[in-house]
Design goal:
By secondary structure, the chain is α/β, with parallel strands linked by helices. Helices cover about 35% and strands about 25% of the residues. The strands form two sheets. The chain has a six-stranded mixed beta sheet, with helices on both faces. Strands 2-1-4-5 form a four-stranded antiparallel beta sheet, covered by helices on one side. Bound molecules: adenosine-5'-diphosphate and magnesium ion.
């Protein structure tokens, strides 16, 4: 395996989520987190899952990642049943979950440590390529405490991408950032997605964000977590979160969202 081969984007995976159900046992009750979720995600598609908190978005992402087992149903990724975590499906969270005692480059290298067939020098080249991809070329040796929240998320993104996964799973990755930083990342994630050809499942409770990023937006409703409606977003890319066309898609989704919720849930 050469660095060049390693940097060639792999064929993105097709995901088939087939009637996935999941319950959690609490002290006094059982929570029905997912109720027969079926969803197809095409190779290289960017799908956003939206819905209010508690509707099972994170649980579904964890099931796709192989971090949770479904009680019923199955997930197939690139033709293989999912039954545990795998480098083919990398996950990124709201909190960057980086190692504070390592610099940016070593954090990205960490994800490559287990990658067979590369020398240390080659791993370094792969890590540097990905730091450049996320715009942090000059910050390889920065300590994490010197980086802003947005930059830390960029390091986390580089770390998720470095092992060359076929699927990228993102759980509200920009939710803790300020609006301006988020806007920059919307542009960057669209560019990186097109350049690296990943299948992306992106979770958010922000309808506008979903309409900005997704080829398709899948609307969930809670108690139990169900798929309610799907919206195809056929706007050209790169998309600007502030565009008028985007606003009309977002309004359509928001109207549907409110239609599926009780008043108390809308107020949350
Ligand atoms: N580990 C867990 N133990 C018990 N209940 C859980 C656990 N994870 C999630 N839940 C419950 O499952 C439901 C769906 O949660 P979650 O997937 O986190 O929703 P979302 O990401 O849409 O906010 C919620 O009612 C939540 O309280
Ligand atoms: Mg969540």
């Amino acid at each position: 395996m050469t660095v060049q081969q390693e940097l060639e984007a792999l064929q993105p995976a097709r995901l088939t989520i087939d009637r996935v159900s999941k319950w959690f046992a609490m002290k006094h009750q059982r929570v029905h987190a997912l109720d027969r979720i079926s969803l197809q995600v095409a190779e290289g598609e960017f799908v956003c899952l939206v819905g209010p908190s508690g509707c099972g978005k994170s649980t579904l992402l964890n099931v796709i990642a192989g971090l949770e087992n479904p009680d019923e149903g199955s997930v197939i990724s690139a033709g293989q049943p999912v039954n545990g975590p795998n480098r083919d499906r990398m996950m990124m969270f709201q909190e960057p979950a980086l190692f504070p005692w390592l610099d940016a480059l070593d954090n990205v290298l960490f994800g490559l440590n287990l990658k067979p067939g590369l020398t240390d020098g080659e791993r370094r080249e792969v890590a540097q390529y990905h730091l450049k991809l996320v715009g942090l070329e000059r910050f390889q040796h920065a300590n994490l405490h010197e980086l802003s929240g947005g930059m830390k998320q960029r390091v986390a993104l580089a770390r998720s991408l470095a092992p060359n996964p076929r699927v990228l799973l993102m759980d509200e990755p920009f939710a803790a950032l300020d609006a301006l930083t988020r806007e920059q990342l919307y542009g960057d994630i669209q560019r990186i997605w097109q350049q690296r050809r990943k299948t992306i499942v992106f979770v958010t409770h922000n309808v506008r964000e979903a309409a900005c990023l997704g080829d398709r937006v899948v609307l969930f409703s809670p108690h139990p977590g169900r798929v309610r409606e799907e919206f195809r977003i056929d706007l050209p890319r790169p998309r600007d979160i502030n565009s008028v066309d985007l606003a009309s898609h977002a309004t359509r989704i928001m109207t549907a969202l409110k239609g599926h919720l009780t008043e108390a849930e809308v107020a949350e």
